[in-house]
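Record format v2
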Amino acid sequence: MATTFSPVAVEEPKIGGRGPTIVPPPRDGGWGGGRPDDHRDRLRRYRIGMFFALTAVVMLFVSFTSAYIVRQGVGTWSDASARYVTDWQPLTLPPILWINTIILLASSFTLAMARRTLSRRLKAAPRGGLSLAAEPELMAEQQRSIPWLAITLVLGAGFLIGQLLAWGQLRHLGIFVGTNPSSSFFYVLTGTHALHLLGGVLGLGYAGITSLLRKPLVTRFVVVDVTALYWHFMDFLWVYIFALLHFAR
Amino acid sequence: MSEHTGAQPAAHAHTAPTGFIRKYVFSLDHKVIGLQYYFLALVAVFVGMFLSLFMRIHLVWPEANLPWFGHIKPEQYLTLLTMHGTIMVFFVLTTAPQSGFGNYFLPIQIGAPDMAFPTLNMLSFWTTFVSFVVMIAAFFVEGGAPLSGWTNYVTLSAIPSSGPGQGLGEDLWVISIAIFCVASLMGALNFITTTLDLRARGMSLFRMPLTCWAWFVTAMLGLLAFGVLLAGGILLLLDRNLGTSFFVPGGLNVSGNLSFPPGGLNPGGHPITHTGGSPLLWQHLFWFFGHPEVYIAILPGMGVASQLLSTFSRKPIFGYKAMVYAILAIGILGFLVWGHHMFMSGMSPYSAFAFSVMTMAIGVPSAIKTFNWLGTLWGGRIRFATPMLFAIGFVSLFVSGGLSGPFLAQPVLDIPLHDTAFVVAHFHLIMGVAAIFGIFAGTYYWFPKMFGRMMNETLGKVHFFVTLAGAYAVFMPMHYLGMAGQPRRYSQFTEVQYLLHLIPLNRFISIAAFITIAVQFVFVFNLFWSMKKGKKAEINPWEATTLEWTVPSPPPHDNFAGVTPVVNHGPYEYSVPGAPKDYVMQTDPATVTAH
């Protein structure tokens, strides 16, 4: 399209719709004018996505927390005692939760190790991808991350089994989801968290079998990286839930 | 993978699929997914519309026998009301403007080949579809669909024996909405990532069309709001099915069954074993979602109206940055006002005061937007094409519906008006019809791009004028009905002494509604007829500036045929002095060779 007007004229009128500069800044926007989409772009995209996914998870648990606090404070009028009484009975948490917490914290550490092993070479790679020559070396490094991934998977599964045992202990004591609001919230919070962590376990499982699925090398790295973000958050979330259940009984 | 082992195929690099299933059913192409959302909403809007038709018939001719329903019983009227509200709010107003048009045009307008996560995009559509199927299934189970309103207030919604349809039908309702929440969250994070990460070179945030800003902020609202509704839904399901008492208080008498503590005996009937829950807790969780949801429905319409008013007035949008900040302000304030839906709940007057002030504060950014729309029209060389008519209609309805907002924002006025037809008039004008006008405007505007043909202008104008007059004829008199004391949600007024003189007005409203509904078939005819027989559209029939008008109609599989566009201009450069045409495309070169 031929443009025959002067740059001064383009500046007018001043109102509306003008970007900050006439010449686009080089790092503006995501794709940057036909630049090949390399692992950094992909990683950034998935990290942004994961960040916002976690925002949604935060809102879910913020809602549960506010419901927890409100429900704990609600009283019912009692004619007999002529005052508001609460039906909330504090729940004694099963001690196994302490062990589960340690297991989950340890799994965060092992996953961090797996991610480190994977990312060392990729971080140094030039833009536009890795050269073919680096592939065998990279493959070897990828293999070194497998034990860490496996340990993390086992620890994650261990945490989930530990949570199942905790529920079993409560059930044995006759404490079910409908027994008391405190137990209802216990099951809701721990159950929702366990479901989320199960998602993380599946993510790691997928990362482990990427080579079997003939996915590119970088796929494992991206999956492990964003799953690590997710996993550490689930770790933090568990500590938060545990503290809430422990301190705000 | 010859040279770049590490380089991954980009999100857009999936080649165009050829099979029918991969191309039209489980498609990864944002354009196909956008159309899938659009047509899902089209089906939903007709279901919702017929439910409202039945309601209007029943209100004025309560003895009439209707197809399928027969003679409507009061509880069936509540079912109609519940499902009309639910289907319209979730599957039409949330689905079409955001997920439909947003999916189709956000990537093209920012110069991206697809959404950030195409597979997730496909997944969110099919999850929405499942949610819709589950919702419709509620009509066909024992007891029928629920009757606790789209707000689904506890305790009516929490106790299965509280009415027909409150059993399995209500469970399906909650499950459907929970699935919808998950689908919307997936969609929202896709929209946000796409906007933040996939903009073309030169497409700075302040060069995005206002449609993109609206979709972006709407996605933010969805991301923060739907998780809260999901939490409420989970707790409600547990209350209904596993005997918890998050929301249900003790001491209730539901259909003759007293509520007893767990393990207590209940003489006859289904035992209700709840104690100590808080029905208001549900209202808080619901409205913390519910108020942002109002803006989820209307913001995309605002974006479309801004886009069209500028394009068809051949003028830059008046106050682009003010428009962006107004959208952001509305988004933020939208999270601080949920309590104004609960003035009736007996909340502390101090809370009510705070919510009231925050609510009226939303009038400021809304007024900024209206002022700027009028400023855009002022002195423009206006082209009255059908999309423009609907955009102007949007502004008109937004003002008419918005003006009753400050009334209802005051507790002292809201308390007498809340359960009357006044509120029905208010939210239908501003959130219902205005948002629908946004959808219509978008449909007439983007149809040439989506299908490569023009819609029929004459039919479009008939559709516009009858719908506009009809919408006002239906909803304006309802303000009066409300002030005269006609309650909402009641199935029958014909035997209530003090409302007898309102029956003629109610008949007028019903007849106006029938005409308005009838003319929607003109729209549907125009839509499908024009796909096959419409006049061939050029690439840029409206002489607009944004990126979707630089690509063929319909756009190729990866939108820009492998060439990433470079953006040099803002989105509303119309009537630029000295320019060869009266508009400058966003992709026109910035560096200039003078004559």
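The beta strands of chain B are 65-66, 70-71, 253-254, 257-258.
The first helix of chain B runs from residue 20 to 25.
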